[in-house]
Design goal:
The protein has 10 helices and 8 strands. It is of the alpha+beta class and about 270 residues long. It has one domain: Muramoyl-pentapeptide Carboxypeptidase, domain 2 (2-Layer Sandwich), CATH 3.30.1380. It has a 4-stranded antiparallel β-sheet. Strand 3 and strand 4 form a beta hairpin. Helix 4 crosses helix 5. It is globular, with a radius of gyration of 18 Å. About 40% of the residues are buried.
């Protein structure tokens, strides 16, 4: 019965939002800028390719993101599997990492690292038992897909009159550069309620006002997940508030992080 309900819900989502995952950009506002800027940048040719800058060309301030290199910290303990690796603009994944991940499906069309997938499956199932139908809109994503999303956003901003530098900076505040996304590691899920895409067709802060968000916020830690980019912590994480983005760290760590109101950066800093 649950599987049938999930299939029906997915059909509704796909009907209302074709090419769903292309709209579900990492960090994870679907970028549709509508601000016109007069006379601030030269015109852009329609077919101009927007190259990605190298990490060295970034202009992140020290306060914006953690610049501390953190070793991969994974373990299997009495509390189950945990993964505390810090993945952000200052700590990207090794080249080719996304090709080596063993994936497991957590909801139709969406998979994540098999070592934490069962935790996600249980979370979605328990939410359903409590009367909340949660819908995954993005999970594991290849670095190539991340590159396409990032470049498309930069191009959209340029089409609205921004210079390349400004377009890149705005995109970088909302979308992780390729290899710097937790989705590339298979450790993150974007989750909304079943009707969100039908009525909104975009990931936005308003999701925090739904009963589904409240359930996730209060219960995600029980399954090893944290709200990764909380409100008021933007200067620490380097990203906008995302009430839909949940990252697996492990049950023991997730409980401490959520109950103390920390970010992963703060938790690792001790």
């Amino acid at each position: 019965m649950k599987k049938l309900a999930t299939i029906i819900s997915l059909l509704l989502i796909l009907t209302s939002c074709s090419d769903l995952d292309s709209r579900t950009l990492d960090h994870e506002l679907a970028v549709t800028p509508n601000v016109s800027v007069e006379g601030t940048s030269p015109p852009i040719e329609d077919n101009e390719e927007v190259p990605l800058r190298s990490e060295a060309e970034g202009n992140d301030s020290p306060e914006a993101i953690s610049s501390t290199s953190v070793d991969v910290a994974t373990a299997s303990t009495e509390s189950g599997y945990s993964d505390l690796r810090l993945i952000n603009k200052a700590n990207p994944l090794p080249n080719g990492y996304d090709d080596k991940i063993e994936l497991k499906e957590v909801q139709e069309l969406y998979s994540m690292d098999s070592r934490c997938a069962d935790y996600a499956i249980q979370m979605l199932s328990d939410a359903y038992d409590d009367g909340f139908t949660l819908s995954v809109t993005s999970a594991w994503r290849s670095v190539k897909r991340q590159t396409d999303n990032f470049n498309n956003s930069v191009f959209q901003y340029q089409q609205n009159g921004y210079s390349y530098t400004n377009a890149y900076t705005l995109t970088e505040s909302e979308i992780a550069p390729p290899g710097s996304s937790e989705h590339n590691a298979g450790l993150a899920l974007d989750i909304v309620n079943i009707s969100w895409w039908t009525y909104h067709k975009i990931l936005e802060e308003g999701f925090e006002n739904t009963p589904e968000f409240k359930w996730l916020y209060n219960n995600c830690w029980k399954y090893g997940f944290i709200l990764r980019y909380p409100k008021g912590k933007e200067t620490i994480t380097g990203y906008v508030y995302e009430p839909w983005h949940y990252r697996f760290v492990g049950v023991e760590h997730a409980e401490k992080i959520m109950k103390e109101g920390l970010t992963l950066e703060e938790y690792l800093a001790g």
